[in-house]
Amino acid sequence: MDIKRVKDYIYWLYYQYLLITCSYVLEPWEQSMFHTITVTVFAMVVYTAYVFVPIHVRLAFEFFSQIFGGQPESTVSIVN
Known about the structure:
Shape: elongated
Pathway: Sphingolipid metabolism; Lipid metabolism; sphingolipid metabolism
Structural class: mainly alpha
Number of domains: 1
Radius of gyration: 23 Å
Main location: endoplasmic reticulum
Family: Belongs to the SPTSS family. SPTSSB subfamily.
Mean pLDDT: 87
Number of strands: 0
Oligomer: single chain
InterPro entries: Ser_palmitoyltrfase_ssu-like
Helix content: over 70%
Protein name: Serine palmitoyltransferase small subunit B
Strand content: under 5%
Distance between the termini: 54 Å
Low-confidence stretches: none
Largest sheet: none
């Protein structure tokens, strides 16, 4: 891809974002506040998913492995 096509695509994505959120009708200071809040919320969601999702997946895996006949960790022998 050449640079112009990538640039046009990014502009198109930004235009779609403005249309979907209806933020194109806001004044410039309102747009700035709206974008700041949106980016902050998105960053918090990504951080929360990064920190807590692996823990919950591990706990769910342990829970279902106990239900479906997996050996508990205390009975597993350690081989050196």
